[in-house]
């Protein structure tokens, strides 16, 4: 089925499918539409689109198949050893902490690097096998940074875009990486490299400059439009494209939703204030700090356990890695301790769920929460903050947001805090709660301003602006 007639190819570590086990024990692959697939579906559907990626379980891969909407999914098989070296090792124990400013220490392991290089080679070969002559290829994220460079060599006819979903660190940190030149060369195989923030793009351009590549258009990035000239004399465009969500989908509530939200609030014991955290359980997200801030506010009496409830939803993530296991046990110990100290029988002051919640239910949590706590130490963007705001088109609620989340650039009306400073998190939470009571009009104005920002800058705008810029790039004569 994977003929070479796909004029638009997305390549990401994961295919947008999951393996489901049916009641009779048989297994089927089901589409798992996330933000990315929603944003890219229109382009994929209208342009003979193909998505190349790993289906999510090791040592097996289905034959290529089409989704209901006609998008071709082209699986790349990973062995258990690939998964350990390429994904858990180099991607998540080397690059992830390095790109998130060393919140934990990155491990530099040569075998992991070799696995990363080999798997990137394989992804690039799979793309080369399905892409039509002159096709546009959009490579996603830190797991596949070598793919643009490899593709450029084997298929110079392709127009190649790359988008990084996590921060790009400053040169001082990046230069630790023993394979920094290979990664830079890989990225520079692109026609367009996109980051969430101008700051990330600037970090990249400074590095390119240090590597003695000729940089045009100054390191000060002009929005979505600065150029690096790589050694082979091609123009590589670099720009900032802040990702977003499908705000209309997220934020439209029916009467039936309102009823379900009331029931949910009743299930929580009808507290005066509901405070919410929603994260992948990752050490970058600052969940423990947030719980500690909450505990200290209960301890000093600034918050009354009779009046407030904290709901923390945490999706399991990368559970075989030591730092993730440690973070989970620290979080769970804190939840147990806080409930042990402050809860009444049958009325926990912290509700904690270590599982993924269906999006339809998640919207209800967002809508009922009086204050949303988003306190990462470092985050490329953070879609949770935008999802919460999208659910408050009625002007209710307040967002406490870490300065170190990319989303802070676009949401200055949030209560910004320094996630490393527990006092700052406490202050932001208390100020937000107090303002909800004392200044409801100001609060409404703040929320509506953020809502407008998210509504008018949705994920479609993100993909359209990236693809528009990509269609203009790669043709040096125009510059
Ligand atoms: P993530 O680190 O995964 O993404 P984020 O942007 O917040 O972080 O996205 C998490 C997604 O998972 C959200 O859509 C959220 O609704 C969902 N989610 C989290 N907990 C959940 C739960 N318990 N149940 C159900 N859903 C849950 C990476 C980068 C980010 C960047 C995105 C997109 O780290 O900085 O914003 O990619 O580029």
Automatic annotation (TrEMBL):
Keywords: Glycosyltransferase, Transferase. It catalyses: GDP-alpha-D-glucose + D-glucose 6-phosphate = alpha,alpha-trehalose 6-phosphate + GDP + H(+); ADP-alpha-D-glucose + D-glucose 6-phosphate = alpha,alpha-trehalose 6-phosphate + ADP + H(+); CDP-alpha-D-glucose + D-glucose 6-phosphate = alpha,alpha-trehalose 6-phosphate + CDP + H(+); TDP-alpha-D-glucose + D-glucose 6-phosphate = 5-methyl-UDP + alpha,alpha-trehalose 6-phosphate + H(+). GO terms for molecular function: alpha,alpha-trehalose-phosphate synthase (GDP-forming) activity; alpha,alpha-trehalose-phosphate synthase (UDP-forming) activity; trehalose-phosphatase activity. One of its GO terms (cellular component) is cytosol. Gene3D superfamilies: Glycogen Phosphorylase B. Belongs to the glycosyltransferase 20 family. PANTHER family: BCDNA.GH08860 (PTHR10788:SF106), TREHALOSE-6-PHOSPHATE SYNTHASE (PTHR10788). This is alpha,alpha-trehalose-phosphate synthase (ADP-forming). It comes from Corynebacterium camporealensis.
């Amino acid at each position: 089925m994977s003929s070479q007639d796909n004029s638009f190819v997305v390549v990401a570590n994961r295919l947008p499918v999951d393996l489901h086990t049916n009641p009779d024990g048989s297994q089927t692959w089901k589409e798992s539409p996330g933000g990315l697939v929603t944003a890219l579906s229109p382009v994929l559907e209208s342009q003979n689109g193909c998505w190349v990626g790993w289906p999510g379980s090791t040592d097996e891969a289905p034959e290529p198949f089409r989704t209901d909407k006609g998008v071709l999914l082209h699986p790349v098989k990973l062995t258990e050893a690939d998964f350990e070296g390429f994904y858990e090792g180099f991607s998540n124990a080397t690059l992830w902490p390095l790109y998130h400013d060393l919140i934990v220490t990155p491990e530099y392991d040569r075998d992991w690097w070799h696995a990363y290089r080999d798997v990137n080679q394989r992804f690039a070969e799979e793309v080369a096998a399905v892409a039509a002559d002159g096709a546009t290829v959009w490579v996603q994220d830190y797991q596949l940074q070598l793919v643009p460079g490899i593709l450029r060599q084997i298929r110079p006819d392709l127009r190649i875009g790359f988008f990084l979903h996590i921060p790009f660190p400053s040169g001082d940190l990046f230069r630790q990486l023993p394979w920094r030149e290979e990664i830079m060369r890989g990225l520079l195989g692109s026609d367009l490299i996109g980051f969430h923030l101008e700051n990330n793009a600037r970090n990249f351009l400074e590095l390119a400059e240090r590597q003695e590549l000729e940089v045009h258009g100054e390191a000060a990035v002009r929005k979505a439009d600065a150029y690096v000239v790589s050694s082979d004399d091609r123009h590589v465009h670099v720009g900032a494209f802040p990702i977003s969500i499908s705000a209309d989908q997220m934020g439209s509530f029916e009467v039936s939703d309102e009823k379900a939200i009331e029931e949910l609030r009743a299930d929580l014991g009808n507290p005066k204030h509901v405070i919410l955290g929603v994260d992948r359980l990752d050490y970058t997200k600052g969940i423990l700090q947030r719980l500690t801030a909450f505990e200290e506010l209960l301890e000093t009496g600034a918050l009354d356990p009779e009046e407030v409830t904290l709901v923390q939803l945490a999706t399991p993530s990368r559970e075989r890695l030591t730092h993730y296991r440690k973070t989970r046990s620290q979080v769970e110990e804190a939840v147990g301790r806080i409930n042990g100290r402050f809860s009444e029988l049958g009325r926990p002051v912290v509700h904690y769920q270590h599982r993924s919640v269906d999006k339809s239910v998640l919207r209800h949590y967002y809508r009922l929460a009086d204050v949303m706590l988003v306190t990462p130490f470092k985050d490329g963007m953070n879609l949770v903050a935008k999802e919460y705001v999208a659910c408050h088109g009625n002007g209710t609620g307040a967002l406490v947001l870490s300065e170190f989340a990319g989303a802070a650039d676009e949401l200055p009306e949030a209560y910004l805090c320094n996630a490393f400073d527990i006092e700052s998190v406490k202050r932001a939470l208390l100020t937000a709660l107090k303002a909800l009571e004392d200044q409801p009009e100001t609060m409404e104005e703040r929320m509506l301003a953020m809502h407008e920002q998210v509504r008018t800058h949705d994920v479609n705008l993100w993909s359209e602006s990236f693809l528009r810029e990509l269609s203009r790039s790669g043709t040096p004569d125009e510059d």
